[in-house]
Amino acid sequence: MNNSNFVSFSFFCFLFLSQTFLSFSATERCNPNDKKVLLQIKKALNNPYQLASWDPKTDCCNWYVVECDPNTNRIVTFNLFSANISAQIPAAIGDLPYLQTLVFRKLTNLTGPIPPAIAKLSNLKLLRLSYTNLSGTVPTFFTQLKNLTFLDLSFNDLTGSIPPELSLLQNLDALHLDRNKLTGNIPESFGKFTGKVPDLYLSHNKLTGSVPKNLGHLNFTVLDFSRNTLVGDISFLFGTNKTIQIVDFSRNMFEFDLSNVKFPDSLTSLDLNHNKITGSLPQDLRKLNLQYLNVSYNKLCGQIPTGGKLQTFDISSYFHNKCLCGAPLPACN
Ligand SMILES: *[C@@H]1O[C@H](CO)[C@@H](O)[C@H](O)[C@H]1NC(C)=O
Ligand SMILES: *[C@@H]1O[C@H](CO)[C@@H](O)[C@H](O)[C@H]1NC(C)=O
Ligand SMILES: *[C@@H]1O[C@H](CO)[C@@H](O)[C@H](O)[C@H]1NC(C)=O
Ligand SMILES: *[C@@H]1O[C@H](CO)[C@@H](O)[C@H](O)[C@H]1NC(C)=O
Ligand SMILES: *[C@@H]1O[C@H](CO)[C@@H](O)[C@H](O)[C@H]1NC(C)=O
Ligand SMILES: *[C@@H]1O[C@H](CO)[C@@H](O)[C@H](O)[C@H]1NC(C)=O
Ligand SMILES: *[C@@H]1O[C@H](CO)[C@@H](O)[C@H](O)[C@H]1NC(C)=O
């Protein structure tokens, strides 16, 4: 190879290499800040197997567990599910400013509190921290996440009371606080959701007291208060005016007369089992298109109205009452 040939060969090599390099960086969609933060998160989670695809040499938009927005190329989804992770939620998660969906689910060795850094994620719409061993209280900083439509903190070890401020979340479709160790009352403010009226899942906690009367002013669709120690009359949550569809008030200490309660046409599922409900089953129950009914283990009396869906339910929907009778239970005397 003579000198001039060597020069042109080298030039060719340079061109080829720079082309390759340019095309490589042109296809790398990942935002460098997002990549840096994700690698910090990976380290804080002790480099779990589930994040093995998070190789700094590759495009983070191709990594498992996360997703980039196709237009902005920023990380918008972080969904970590069923992994063997023994760590706390890394504060670095708050440095993914475009995040809309954040899920940590079925990570039983994920412990510690819900980090305040999450409050920085102002674009967050869906937050699910569920089936983990998170402890501490339900933070009030969630109210800063104005766009939140879905908040799920179920199946954790959260303690303390329910923050009344959660009613300030105007776009909330559903609030899952079930299966924790929450104490205190259902906040009065839950009768004053200023925007949407969310489905409320508060079951399997240690909630006490009576349900605030002003919850009767809102049109809820789903109310699940089961397995707490709530007391008193909740008949104000019914009424012909309402739009409620699914009700689970089972395994509490509710005490009221069912005889004159008016149920709305919208009701499809009614579970009142294990309370101290008295009176008889209203005739109007026959008019409902019920898919589920359970009034067992109460203090009800009298004949089960005949017709509608009421005889399609099993004995176990009615058994263990004071003197309820008629099909499917034994005939009345
Ligand atoms: C949780 O941690 C314990 C103790 O380190 C370990 O034995 C167990 O396998 C872990 N479980 C999961 C699902 O990660
Ligand atoms: C989880 O990880 C721990 C420690 O790294 C290990 O001892 C355990 O066997 C793992 N558990 C499962 C279910 O993989
Ligand atoms: C996580 O929670 C499960 C079930 O509540 C419990 O058995 C386990 O000991 C907890 N693990 C840790 C590491 O706290
Ligand atoms: C909430 O969402 C709207 C529209 O999706 C967006 O314009 C707004 O910036 C978001 N708010 C915050 C605080 O991110
Ligand atoms: C609840 O819904 C009913 C039926 O759609 C409606 O008549 C009533 O005004 C609503 N109440 C409230 C407080 O929105
Ligand atoms: C039904 O709702 C309207 C408007 O919210 C209210 O004025 C009316 O008193 C309610 N009727 C009953 C029977 O609750
Ligand atoms: C009704 O609730 C009781 C008590 O929890 C239960 O034993 C029974 O199986 C339930 N019936 C139906 C139809 O779900």
TrEMBL record:
Superkingdom of the organism of origin: Eukaryota
Main location: other
Transmembrane segments: none
Signal peptide: 1-25
All copies of domain Leucine-rich repeat-containing N-terminal plant-type, residue ranges: 32-69
InterPro entries the UniProt entry points to: Leu-rich_rpt, LRR_dom_sf, LRR_N_plant-typ, PGIP
Key words, A-Z: Leucine-rich repeat, Repeat, Signal
Subcellular location: Cell envelope
PANTHER family per the UniProt record, alphabetical: POLYGALACTURONASE INHIBITOR 1, POLYGALACTURONASE INHIBITOR 1-RELATED
Family of the protein in this entry: Belongs to the polygalacturonase-inhibiting protein family.
Name the record gives this protein: Polygalacturonase inhibitor 1
Source species: Abeliophyllum distichum
